[in-house]
Amino acid sequence: MKFRPLADTGVFVSELCLGTMTFGGVGQIWEVMGGLDQGAADAIVHRALDAGINFIDTANVYAAGESEKLVGHAIAGRRHDIVLATKVRGRMGPGANQVGLSRLHIIESVEASLKRLNTDYIDLYQIHRSDPITNIEDTLRALDDLVRAGKVRYIGCSNLPAWQLMKALGISREQRLERFKCTQSYYSLVGRDLERDTMPLLKDQGLGLLVWSPLAGGFLSGKFTRDGGDESGRRAKFDFPPVNKDKGFDIIDVLAPIAKAHGVSVAQTALAWILANGAVTSVIIGAKKIAQLDDNLKAVDVTLTADDLKALDEASKLPAQYPEWMDSLGSDRKPGESRY
Known about the structure:
By secondary structure, the protein is α/β, with parallel strands linked by helices. The protein has a single domain, classed as TIM Barrel. It has helices at 28-33, 38-50, 66-74, 103-117, 136-148, 162-175, 198-205, 234-237, 245-262, 266-275, 290-297, 306-316, 324-327, and strands spanning 3-5, 12-14, 16-19, 55-57, 83-88, 122-127, 152-158, 180-186, 208-212, 282-285. Helix 2 packs across helix 3 (66-74) and helix 9 runs antiparallel to helix 12 (306-316). It is globular. The N and C termini lie far apart (44 Å).
């Protein structure tokens, strides 16, 4: 297992992160995601840690808090070996204020998460997505207070559009508040939208990138083809994240032969493509079964050639959009000029 720096924190995290959305089965959606009980969760967590993973990600909303409880039990005795991440934003009860990014909900949520995780601090506390009702400055001040209180080490965001992320960074700088250190965002061979605005922002601002659903909800697992798919798989029951399947199958047509040439699985190859991107800090992998986890873990040993990467890029690249296509036109430089 290799390790990469989490932005400029000085903290190193494994290039694969264990996601725990499959833990717990409270609620119809979470049963589809995995519904794993404590025994299964313990087995997966311990296998991941033994393989060198030191980074675990969960969220309070996963199975209505059950995932956090299962994680807390599974890491007992090994807490200080782990960079532990969780999230806040989703609805945690029927009350009017049991959702969102208000100071009230954040403070209540972090205390509940600490209790469920059986820890007195959270290494990375992330807002799960934006809250259009709450002033982002109030959110950032609440998060800053948690860092100052020692309950949270670092803060991050998830699923924010680039403009909202940049706005938050600007407010943090202006008000001298704790700054987001990373974003957790969807990115895969069949979902490269992040490259348009967010990845350039991350590079410019020195933020980390944690990738969720790198296999596009199982679409890139090797179990789905034009002729059908795994009816027991999650995507067969919950078609998420959205995928342009016609283009997706064209990408798989390129991906599968590359995997075969390397003697590895399609899933490992799709993960290796993401790991080859220098903008990526860690790739979040989830599993229902040990065999699935073991297969994904082997992705760190797959090295794609320049030709492999070029073929996959050509098959999956985004069409140019405005103003990108303007920049592809001739420059405004005069002959012989070295700058605009």
